[in-house]
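User: structure tokens for this one?
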Amino acid sequence: MRQYIGTKIIRAESATRGECYKGPDVLNSEKANEPGYRIKYPDGYESWSPKNVFEEAYRPTNKMNFGFALEALKKGKRVARNGWNGKNQYIELASNISYASPAGKVVNCEHDAIGNKAIAFIGTSGVQMGWLASQADMLAEDWHIVD
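Assistant:
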């Protein structure tokens, strides 16, 4: 079998198996009080997951590592670090990037590997295109989604 890794953004809350499944086979069993999470997916589907399985697969979106922050960025979310000093600073994925050359010609930026995309840093002094993460940013576990 091949190995897979997945990333999705969900909503969840603590709930016992019995709180999610009301059938007599669950309510009348020792599994009714099993700790876990009620999960709601973006398409509205709801399910329940045992606590240990859920906590191995998911982490809160206010305690993400850089890899999860990049995945959120690719899904159209704005992300930031709790450790950044400036207020209202974040990064987002920019696309359809172009610039005016010194001759006044508008050039569309295309790159074989990434197409027409770059990370934009939005900070107190404006927008910085092509933002590069520092070692501290890449190793931090305090990334969060900015609403």
